[in-house]
Amino acid sequence: MTYLNAFWVGGLICVVAQILIDKTKLTPGRILVSFVVIGVILGGLGIYDKLVEFAGAGATVPIVGFGNVLAKGAIKAVGEKGLLGALLGGAQAAAGGISASIVFGFLIALIFNPKSK
């Protein structure tokens, strides 16, 4: 049942993004930033954690989950380091995912020889 919940929750997030792309004049960048901000807000309020418990990777893998990680990292760091933690906590919490994205992007670029347009 966990796989089914992850599938439909992650799919629903992607459907919402696709509808926004198709039916509005919002650019993909603005939609992306909106989803991250929504993740930060829901994560800061503690609502997104309930969705993660229910859907697992279906809630953590989409970009909304990245916003949740930023919020949780900032909240934790504020408790440990004070105001400076608000600035550093989100980046520290997301450092693993950001590093993996850079490394895998570099490896794929080496394998497939990208060309600029």
Detailed description of the structure:
Helices cover 87% and strands 0% of the residues. With 117 residues, it is an all-alpha fold. It has one domain. Helix 2 (28-45) packs across helix 5 and helix 5 (63-81) runs antiparallel to helix 6 (83-112). It starts with a helix and ends in a 5-residue tail after the last helix.
Which features would summarize this protein structure in a list?
117 residues, mainly alpha, 0% strand, globular
Spans of at least 5 consecutive residues whose pLDDT stays below 50 are: none
- The shape, in one word, is globular
Q: Which class of secondary structure composition applies to the elements? A: mainly alpha
Q: Count every helix, treating DSSP H or I runs of 4 or more residues as helices.
A: 6
How are the SSEs placed, and which strands pair?
Elements: H1 2-23, H2 28-45, H3 47-55, H4 57-60, H5 63-81, H6 83-112
In short:
The protein has 117 residues and is mostly helical. It is 87% helix and 0% strand. It has helices at residues 2-23, 28-45, 47-55, 57-60, 63-81, 83-112.
